[in-house]
């Protein structure tokens, strides 16, 4: 079994549930119209919201298939960072208890994606020739 299979499954489930339910309860359109358009992305808020959520679905499928992991990770990390900047930063760090809607959850997802993308570490040690 691949060492990070469980992490890939967990992130895929999170990305899918965060996306698919919004496709059926008007959540994506609301996010586009009621948030993104209001903070300066009009008239592209709905398009942008759908692009974000569809990228999550594609990333989840790629993670489950263990294909194009770095591409899926980079795109998702960019979206998560923008989520921190545009949505979560103003709410603080904590998702619950010490606050509401904070950045800690996105931070954890970013770190897990980095571990999946670079299972042997980001910086590779050079071999000694001595």
Automatic annotation (TrEMBL):
<keyword id="KW-0812">Transmembrane</keyword>
<keyword id="KW-1133">Transmembrane helix</keyword>
<keyword id="KW-0472">Membrane</keyword>
<dbReference type="InterPro" id="IPR032808">
    <property type="entry name" value="DoxX"/>
</dbReference>
<feature type="transmembrane region" description="Helical">
    <location>
        <begin position="5"/>
        <end position="24"/>
    </location>
</feature>
<dbReference type="GO" id="GO:0016020">
    <property type="term" value="C:membrane"/>
</dbReference>
<dbReference type="Pfam" id="PF07681">
    <property type="entry name" value="DoxX"/>
</dbReference>
<feature type="transmembrane region" description="Helical">
    <location>
        <begin position="71"/>
        <end position="90"/>
    </location>
</feature>
<protein>
    <submittedName>
        <fullName>Putative oxidoreductase</fullName>
    </submittedName>
</protein>
<feature type="transmembrane region" description="Helical">
    <location>
        <begin position="105"/>
        <end position="123"/>
    </location>
</feature>
<feature type="transmembrane region" description="Helical">
    <location>
        <begin position="44"/>
        <end position="64"/>
    </location>
</feature>
């Amino acid at each position: 079994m691949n060492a990070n299979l469980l992490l890939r499954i967990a992130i895929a489930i999170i990305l899918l549930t965060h996306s698919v339910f919004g496709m059926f309860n008007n959540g994506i359109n609301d996010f586009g119209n009621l948030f993104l358009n209001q903070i300066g992305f009009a008239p592209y808020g709905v398009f942008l919201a759908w692009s974000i959520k569809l990228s999550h679905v594609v990333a989840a499928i790629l993670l489950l298939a263990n294909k194009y992991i770095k591409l899926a990770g980079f795109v998702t990390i960019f979206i998560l960072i923008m989520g921190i900047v545009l949505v979560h930063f103003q709410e603080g760090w904590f998702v619950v208890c010490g606050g509401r809607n904070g950045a800690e959850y996105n931070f954890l997802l970013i770190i897990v994606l980095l571990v999946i993308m670079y299972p042997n570490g980001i910086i590779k040690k050079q071999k000694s020739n001595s």
